[in-house]
Amino acid sequence: LGAWALLCLVPTWKGTRYVCGVTVAFFSLLYVGLIAGDIEGIMATDSDEFFQLDGIIREFAKPSTVFFGWIHYVVMDLMCGWWAATDAAARGIPRLLMLPCTAMIFIMGPVGLTLYIGVRAVWEQLCGAGPKSKAE
Q1: Is pLDDT of 36 > 90?
Q2: Contacts of 61 (CB under 8 A, 6+ apart)
């Protein structure tokens, strides 16, 4: 939650970049380690399990699959939130406009990302603003 608070309050602070980077790296390495530790079980899973709703339900009935899914959620949603916050800062989008986007990315990743893309498109239409260059 600390990384998310920083993304909301101080998205361009170098400490935010550090905390987000460490959080993403930690959970990504944990994910890789857990996958490597259970590679035999994963490889034994019928590939049809991932392409049919009944199979997905059976897989997510297993605590280990839920844990893998949760780590995936933590990493991917934080990466989306981090990207949106830094992209918005580069484009001059006010933090107040970003708060609902960041909150929605945290709660329902794809909904928040879609909201941000919409906010960004409207902002660019109204302000004619793209990303600021480093020279500005």
Answers
A1: no
A2: none
